[in-house]
Automatic annotation (TrEMBL):
SUPFAM superfamilies: Periplasmic binding protein-like II, Winged helix' DNA-binding domain. Transmembrane segments: none annotated. One of its GO terms (molecular function) is DNA-binding transcription factor activity. This is DNA-binding transcriptional LysR family regulator. Residues 12-69 form the HTH lysR-type domain. It comes from Rhizobium loti (Mesorhizobium loti). It comes from the Bacteria.
Amino acid sequence: MNAPLNHPLPLLDLDVLRTFVAIAETGSFTTAANAVFRTPSAVSMQIKKLEDILGRSVFARDARSVSLTTDGEMLLGYARRLLSINREVVSKFIIPEIVGVVRLGSPDDYGERVLPHVLKRFAQSHPSIAVDVTIDQSSNLRRRMDDRALDITLLTNSYKTSALGAEVLLTEPIVWAGAKGGCAHLREPLPVSLWEEGCAWRAGALDALGREGRNYRIAYMSAHTAGQRAAIMSDLAVAPLPKSFLGNDMVELCPKDGMPDIGTYNLAMVVAPDASAPVKAVADHIRATFEVFRETGKF
């Protein structure tokens, strides 16, 4: 219903418009919820509030998809402009106080899977902070932190051996991954694909195989997640992966499949003790990202 002309028009909430744009761009309430660090139910409530204010439906929904209505398409242009103006205004007063370069380290697995999403969102909220990323093994990243060559780093550690001064962001099971419909796990000796020395997943997997007395051979070795996935998908070998890393074409191999339990690992973050404001801003953004992951299971 349109508001009477003599009645003040309602103000649109920029936070709600940000959620609206995220849904329009992703085509999914769930994916958008991850992007704006809210639960799907909270996002649905925001959109209902928006539609109540406007008196129009902005999304057409069915069981499988979400699409913009004609009114939603019109609103999308306005919403993007309002959000852009808001960023411009805020940057004039707040963002210039936080300017600098942050040196961030990450293992290859999280550098490939998580950092692109994290850094894209961070750049939108902190355009004056440049983030230089170094991808390396956790053991090398720890040394770089000790040498003060990095400001922040992510590290993967076994559950029993967290790095000194590290803040645990996530504890997750390591599982054996195999190709869906594959038979690599049935071969003798067992063909395994592993990371290089120093990887927590490698150490856990080899310890598990040793405890069970399972014969194995290293059929494939790569320092990169893409290489591990290639070995799994081609059914050349099985490989230890965090459970959340399993793709649609992979299966988790359990003790009933003849595979020993590996255990868990920690993903931790180390921040320089004399962290500057830009470094603290990046660290806070990473923490928020993993808080959402712990609640929703998605980045």
